[in-house]
Every structure is written in structure tokens, then in C-alpha cells.
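Try this one yourself first.
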């Protein structure tokens, strides 16, 4: 997974370009390893996909926001670059 998957920077290949209207990628299914060995969270609208296309079982989209469930038990609301661009457009 690359940082740009969640956080666009001014050095990103996406910075300053028109954002695609379709979702970058969500999955409703987890990898078998995640199902067996990891904490499972409610998928809400879906699990975000990594750069390689693997569902991130601890990163869940819910409407206009994404929640990252950390290994320490904390939940972080992650701003979406696409939503920030729309809100500040």
C-alpha cells in the first residue's frame, strides 16, 4: 500500500489532476488470512483496496468518510482526497 492510496500529496501523480468520478476501489470480501487471523470489522460500504488490489480489512468506507481501525484499538477518521476536493472545490 502506498501513502497516496489514502493521502494525496503535492508530489503525487494525482495532485492537480481531475479526479475520476468512479470509486478507486472497494471490496466486500476479505482475504482468507484476514478472516482467520485478524479482527474483522463491519464492512459498511466496503473495505478499501491496497495498490495491489487486496482488501484492507481494517480500513472501511462509510459514506463520505473512511475509518482506519488501528491495532491499538483506536479508530481514526481519514479524510478522502476526492471528498476534500469536492468540499473545497
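Now uncover the answer:
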Amino acid at each position: 500500500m502506498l501513502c497516496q492510496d489514502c493521502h494525496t500529496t503535492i508530489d503525487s501523480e494525482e495532485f492537480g489532476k481531475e479526479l475520476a468520478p468512479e470509486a478507486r476501489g472497494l471490496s466486500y470480501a476479505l482475504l482468507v488470512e484476514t478472516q482467520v487471523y485478524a479482527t474483522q470489522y463491519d464492512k459498511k460500504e466496503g473495505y478499501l483496496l491496497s495498490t495491489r488490489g487486496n482488501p484492507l480489512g481494517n480500513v472501511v468506507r462509510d459514506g463520505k468518510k473512511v475509518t482506519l481501525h488501528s491495532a491499538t484499538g483506536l479508530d481514526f477518521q481519514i479524510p478522502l482526497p476526492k471528498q476534500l476536493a469536492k468540499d473545497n472545490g
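Discussion: The CA atoms of residues 43 and 60 lie 6 Å apart. The first helix runs from residue 32 to 37.
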